[in-house]
């Protein structure tokens, strides 16, 4: 029987809960970056299209998904606050302006399609098209800046590694966005959408190499950290997946290409987690064991997460099942 005394005595079932929550936080971040990432990428590609029909097709493709996908960002922030409140407080307070920038970009990205559809006036729609593209590009870029600063412990809003990671993440969203659009609208969008994805993944690979070079210089342990077997395996796998993505897009196998983009996203976040572990806030040197909440709330949160996260995941399974398959000509945003 579970009692307050037993929940206060030690970790639930003897599990390494600090490590589990550390991994869970990064898994939630990766889920957001992939699911909302293809929305961001679609928004970036939106700005490269020529006709109203093509732009309406992009909006119809992401319409059922983008607002739901942002739930994972809220869950990520909530989990970080619940499990590592000290790290949450110091991390977000140091990057206060950056957080406002991210929220502003997300608001702009969400507001722009709604306003775009309100009036069929050329200047009006052009203005909100620009706003949609800016929000779609700026959001992943600033998220990447935040992740890069977090990784190296930079206390300012901008850093070289932050800018490079921001560019890396932005290119990765275009990779997944191109695959998603080809999956949802294979006949209504021009073939160059596939080409955009192939260009983006080439740029992504170069940006990853640049990031690793900068990290080798800036990290305290330097190159030895990057020679971790898991990191080497992930980098080598990413090179193979890059080639696989290009082949899949050329063959019109969009679902396979989108799956490849998902693996790349989770792999990138895994590399960040491996480099950072066991620290949760490299700027202060705080580790997960030092900043994790006390045993009782940790056990209660773990039980709640074990019940609620499968329900949230089930909702997304239903959502993507209901709106699976290519969009029709009758569908609109």
UniProtKB/TrEMBL annotation:
Xref: InterPro entries: Cyt-d_oxidase_su2 (IPR003317)
Transmembrane segments: 20-49, 70-89, 95-116, 128-152, 158-181, 201-220, 226-248, 255-280, 300-323
Entry keyword set: Cell membrane, Membrane, Transmembrane, Transmembrane helix
Gene Ontology molecular function, alphabetical: electron transfer activity; oxidoreductase activity, acting on diphenols and related substances as donors, oxygen as acceptor
Highest taxon of the lineage: Archaea
Compartments, record wording: Cell membrane
GO biological process: aerobic electron transport chain
Keyword Lipoprotein: no
Membrane topology classification: Multi-pass membrane protein
Keyword Membrane (UniProt): yes
One Pfam family named in its UniProt record: Cyt_bd_oxida_II
One GO CC annotation: plasma membrane
Name of the protein in its database record: Cytochrome d ubiquinol oxidase subunit II
């Amino acid at each position: 029987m579970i009692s307050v005394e037993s929940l206060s005595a030690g970790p639930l079932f003897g599990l390494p809960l600090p490590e589990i929550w550390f991994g869970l936080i990064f898994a939630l971040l990766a889920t957001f970056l992939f699911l909302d990432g293809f929305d961001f990428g679609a928004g970036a590609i939106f700005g490269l299209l020529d006709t109203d029909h093509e732009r309406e097709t992009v909006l119809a493709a992401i319409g059922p998904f983008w607002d739901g996908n942002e739930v994972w960002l809220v869950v990520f922030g909530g989990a970080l606050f619940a499990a590592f409140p000290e790290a949450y407080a110091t991390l977000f307070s140091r990057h206060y302006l950056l957080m406002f920038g991210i929220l502003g970009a997300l608001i702009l990205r969400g507001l722009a399609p709604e306003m775009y559809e309100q009036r069929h006036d050329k200047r009006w729609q052009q203005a909100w098209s620009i706003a949609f593209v800016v929000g779609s590009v700026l959001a992943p870029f600033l998220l990447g800046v935040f992740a890069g600063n977090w990784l190296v412990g930079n206390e300012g809003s901008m850093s070289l590694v932050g800018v490079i990671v921001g560019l890396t993440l932005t290119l990765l969203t275009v990779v997944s966005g191109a695959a998603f659009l080809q999956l949802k609208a294979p006949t209504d969008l021009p073939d160059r959408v596939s080409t955009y994805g192939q260009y983006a993944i080439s740029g992504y690979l170069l940006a990853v190499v640049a990031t690793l070079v900068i990290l080798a210089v800036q990290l305290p342990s330097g190159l030895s950290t990057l020679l971790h077997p898991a990191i080497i395996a992930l980098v080598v796998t990413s090179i193979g997946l890059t080639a696989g993505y290009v082949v899949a897009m050329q063959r019109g196998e969009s679902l396979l290409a989108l799956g490849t983009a998902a693996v790349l996203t989770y792999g990138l976040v895994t590399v960040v987690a491996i480099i950072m572990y066991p620290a949760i806030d490299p700027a202060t040197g705080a580790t997960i064991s030092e900043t994790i909440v006390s045993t009782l709330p940790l056990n209660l949160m773990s039980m709640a997460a074990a019940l609620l996260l499968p329900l949230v995941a089930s909702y997304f399974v239903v959502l993507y099942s209901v709106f699976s398959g290519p969009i029709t000509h009758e569908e609109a945003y």
